[in-house]
UniProtKB/TrEMBL annotation:
The active site is at H441 (proton acceptor). It is an enzyme of class 1 (oxidoreductase). It catalyses: N(6)-[(R)-dihydrolipoyl]-L-lysyl-[protein] + NAD(+) = N(6)-[(R)-lipoyl]-L-lysyl-[protein] + NADH + H(+). The keyword Nucleotide-binding applies. It comes from Candidatus Anaerostipes excrementavium. One of its GO terms (cellular component) is cytoplasm. Binds 1 FAD per subunit. It is found in: Cytoplasm. Pfam families: Pyr_redox_2, Pyr_redox_dim. PANTHER family: DIHYDROLIPOYL DEHYDROGENASE, DISULFIDE OXIDOREDUCTASE. GO terms for biological process: 2-oxoglutarate metabolic process. The gene is lpdA. Its cofactor is FAD. This is Dihydrolipoyl dehydrogenase.
Length: 455
């Protein structure tokens, strides 16, 4: 039998989209998935969290409807119904991916696959004793949560006191007191959900700010908005031990105990590279990540790696673009990925969306920036729809090119607006050219137009 044109290992966003794109090019594609199609994104990440966060948002809006003239009393939460809806959404979307694979004639085998070596015709892949052959491989095996080896950590995981976001998302009851370790994207979204639903939430973060490298001033504003919802932040504290009823945190020579009936580990994720047989083809790995270039080529010609497994930017939409780039490159279409214009979003309420340079990163690179910052209240629609909630739009212009170099928006619909700024940055449209763009009125997106005219 002729080798497949492509074997994909992993059925998450990078894997299923790569398979679909290749099949659309009339290539013969086989995809291996050891668990469920859709990967972390659909089954235990992006989609379930957004479903839960929307329930929290509806609950908050209903409770706080008074200032909008909506009088409600005795608003109740039904955690079982929330879980059921979340599972229904996952089921529907995973079903959609299955249908797409079928429609594009991608063969899907639900088994664990391992690379076995290289021949003159391509690569050998083994699954449950069978050998498959392909001219190209796309490794899209994803990532898993980091569990730091701290005292009491293993016991807490075994007893169920400490969990990762995977277990917490399926938890049938709301905990009374939740301690979240890490104020990165997962930590903040989980904090927003559980605090929104009435759980007492403490977030312990060893850095002096939340949300990693995102704009310092805006993340401070987000922190304030989240504190208004009752979330307590302990910044500069490192969790060093887990006890039977909580965590021990350390800041310089100060130690604090923080009680909890659930603890969430959200201290990062690392690529899954074990068991893939990468040594059989001598694939280059650095710091536990598969090394890739801007075409997603690995150190072995014909093998590509897309998504979390290369550890470049662990985001589903990055995975999509990476797999498209990889598939284009392997079938002779010139393509490269520009990581500098990929947006990132924290889906709290308010949302924080960001693309490109921050003031801090621009300074480090020695770029000459002009910054404009305006409150979201410059948008009539934002004012019409929000009460007692702050927001800001901050744009950075590269003075040498006259183009936008970064954008950071805190406020409603930020996640839906940021792609446009990324596109303008990618197309290198200047601020002067942007002034001719017409935005619908009234819309929150007009904030971008307002900000552009301040340069
Ligand atoms: P993260 O890397 O975003 O944040 C982890 C945080 O934990 C860091 O701020 C770190 O300083 C802190 N930390 C580490 N050890 C600690 C300790 N012992 N005590 C206190 N703080 C400690 O990791 P996170 O939030 O787990 O997310 C994992 C990946 O998933 C990220 O790459 C993220 O981009 C992605 N993701 C993206 C989403 C989105 O785009 N909306 C949603 C969910 C996940």
């Amino acid at each position: 039998m002729e080798p497949y044109d492509l074997i994909v290992i992993g059925g998450g966003p990078a894997g299923y989209l790569g398979a679909q794109r290749a099949a659309k090019k009339k290539k013969r594609v086989l995809l291996f998935e050891k668990n469920k199609l859709g990967g972390v994104c659909l089954n235990e990440g992006c989609i379930p969290t957004k479903t839960l966060l929307n329930s929290a948002k509806i609950y908050e809006h209903t409770k706080n409807g008074n200032s909008f003239g909506i009088l409600t009393e005795n608003v109740l939460i039904d955690p079982t119904a929330i879980q059921k809806r979340k599972n229904r959404v996952i089921h529907m979307l995973v079903g959609g991916v299955k249908m797409t694979m079928k429609k594009h004639k991608v063969e899907v085998i639900y088994q664990q696959a391992k690379i076995k070596g290289k021949t003159d015709r391509g690569f050998l892949v083994e699954a449950e004793g069978e050998i498959y052959e392909a001219r190209n491989l796309l490794i899209a095996a994803g990532s898993q949560p980091v569990i730091p080896p701290i005292k009491g950590g293993k016991e807490a995981m075994e007893s169920g006191l400490a969990v990762t976001s995977r277990e917490l998302l399926d938890f049938p009851q709301l905990p009374n007191k939740l301690v979240i370790v890490g104020a990165g994207v997962i930590g903040l979204e989980m904090a927003a959900y559980f605090a929104g639903m009435g759980t007492k939430v403490t977030v312990v973060e060893m850095l002096d700010k939340i949300a990693g490298t995102m704009d310092r001033k805006i993340t401070k504003m987000l922190q304030k908005e989240l504190e208004k919802k009752g979330i307590q932040f302990m910044l500069g504290y490192q969790v060093t031990e887990i006890e039977k009823d909580g965590v021990v945190c350390k800041k310089e020579d100060q130690w604090i105990r923080c009680k909890a009936d659930k603890i969430l580990w959200s201290v990062g994720r690392h690529p899954i590279i074990k068991g893939l047989g990468l040594e059989s083809v001598n694939l280059k790995i650095e710091n536990g990540k598969i090394v890739t270039d801007e075409h997603l080529r690995t150190s072995v010609e014909g093998i590509y790696a897309a998504g979390d497994v290369n550890g470049k930017m662990m985001l589903a939409h990055t995975a999509y673009r990476e797999s498209e780039t990889a598939v284009n490159d392997m079938f002779g279409i010139q393509d490269t990925i520009d990581y500098g214009v990929i947006p990132s979003v924290i889906y709290t309420n308010p949302e924080l969306a960001s693309v490109g340079e921050t003031e801090e990163s621009a300074k480090e690179k020695g770029l000459r920036m002009k910054t404009v910052e305006i409150p979201m209240a410059y948008s009539g629609r934002f004012v019409a729809e929000n009460d007692g909630i702050g927001g800001i739009c901050k744009l950075l212009m590269d003075q040498d090119t006259g183009c936008l170099a970064g954008a950071h928006i805190l406020g409603s619909y930020a996640s839906e607006m940021i792609w446009g700024i990324g596109a303008l940055m990618e197309q290198k449209v200047t601020i002067e050219e942007m002034k001719k763009i017409v935005f619908p009125h009234p819309s929150v997106s007009e904030i971008i137009r307002e900000a552009i005219f301040k340069f």
